[in-house]
Specification:
This is Nickel pincer cofactor biosynthesis protein LarB. Pfam families: AIRC. InterPro entries: P2CMN_synthase_LarB, PurE_dom. It comes from Paraclostridium tenue. The chain is an alpha/beta fold. Helices cover 38% and strands 17% of the residues. It has eleven helices and eleven strands. It has a five-stranded parallel beta sheet. Strands 3-4-6-5 form a four-stranded mixed beta sheet, with helices on both faces. Strands 1-2 form a two-stranded antiparallel ribbon. Strand 9, helix 9 and strand 10 form a beta-alpha-beta unit. The longest helix is centred in the N-terminal third of the chain and has 13 residues. It starts with a helix and ends with a helix.
C-alpha cells in the first residue's frame, strides 16, 4: 500500500489513524535482521528497490520478496540463480525468469509506460547478449519501450549501418561490447542522443576481463557517452530509464 492510497483510506474512514500510523512504521524502511528493505525508494527515486540476488542465500531472497510482496510492490531481482527462481515460483506463481540475463520479475500491478521515447540496446556480438538482456529487461520493467539490435560490432560495420534508422529512432542508446570495446564510440558519432556504454568481460586474454573495453569507452573521442561498470547491464538499463522519463 503506498502513502497516497493509505491517506485516501484514512480520509474515507476505511482505516483508523492508529492503524495508519502502524503501517507507516515500515516507511521509509523495514528492518528484518539481515536486510533493511527500502520501501520508500519508489517515492524518492521513482522506482522500487531492486534485489541483487548474487551472494544472498535463497532464504534471504525469499524473505525480502515476501515483505516486498506484502506491500504490493513490483519486484525485480538481478543475477538470480535458476534453482532459486524455481523455489520462488513455487510460492509466487506469477514469478517470471529470463534465463540468459538471470533476471527475476514479479509483476503485482501493471507496469505503465512512463518513458518519453524509445530505448535501443545494441551489442557488438552475440556473446554480449546476457549483459544486454539484463539492460533490456531492466528498462522494460521500469516502464519503457525497448528495442534490441544485436551482433552489429565493428568487425562488420555494414551490419550496424543497416540499422541506422533504428539507432536514430532512440531517445537513449545502450551500447554493449567486449573485446576492444570500440562500438560505443562509433555509435556516438552517428547519433544525437545519450549513449550509455557497457563494457563486457567477453574477450581473449589481453581483454583483462573487460578492462580493455572499459578503458576504450572511458577514453572515447565521441561526445555524449557515459560509461557504467563491466557487465553492468542493470546499471545501464536503470540509467537509460531515468534519462528517458525526463521531460
Amino acid at each position: 500500500m503506498d502513502i497516497r492510497n493509505l491517506l485516501e483510506k484514512v480520509k474515507n474512514g476505511d482505516i483508523d489513524i492508529d492503524l495508519a500510523i502502524d503501517k507507516l512504521k515500515d516507511l521509509p524502511y523495514e528492518d528484518i535482521g539481515y536486510a533493511n528493505i527500502d520501501h520508500h525508494r519508489q517515492i524518492r527515486n521513482g522506482y522500487p528497490e531492486v534485489i541483487y540476488c548474487e551472494g544472498k542465500s535463497d532464504e534471504h531472497i525469499l524473505g525480502i520478496i515476501k515483505r516486498m510482496n506484502e506491500k504490493g510492490s513490483n519486484i525485480l531481482g538481478t543475477r538470480c540463480r535458476k534453482d532459486t527462481y524455481k523455489k520462488i515460483r513455487n510460492i509466487y506463481p506469477n514469478c517470471e525468469y529470463e534465463e540468459l540475463s538471470r533476471i527475476l520479475k514479479i509483476e503485482n500491478k501493471p507496469i505503465k509506460n512512463i518513458g518519453k521515447g524509445k530505448i535501443v540496446v545494441v551489442t557488438g556480438g552475440t556473446s554480449d547478449i546476457p549483459v544486454a538482456d539484463e539492460a533490456y529487461y531492466t528498462a522494460k520493467f521500469l516502464g519503457n519501450e525497448v528495442e534490441r539490435v544485436y551482433d552489429v560490432g565493428v568487425a562488420g560495420i555494414h551490419r550496424l549501418l543497416n540499422k541506422l534508422n533504428i539507432l536514430k529512432s532512440a531517445r537513449v542508446l545502450i551500447v554493449i561490447a567486449g573485446m576492444e570495446g570500440a562500438l560505443p564510440s562509433v555509435v556516438g558519432g552517428l547519433v544525437d542522443v545519450p549513449v550509455i556504454a557497457v563494457p563486457t568481460s567477453v574477450g581473449y586474454g589481453a581483454n583483462f576481463g573487460g578492462i580493455s573495453a572499459l578503458l576504450t569507452m572511458l577514453n572515447s573521442c565521441a561526445s555524449g557517452i557515459s560509461v557504467v561498470n563491466i557487465d553492468n547491464g542493470f546499471g545501464a538499463g536503470y540509467l537509460a530509464a531515468t534519462i528517458n522519463k525526463l521531460d
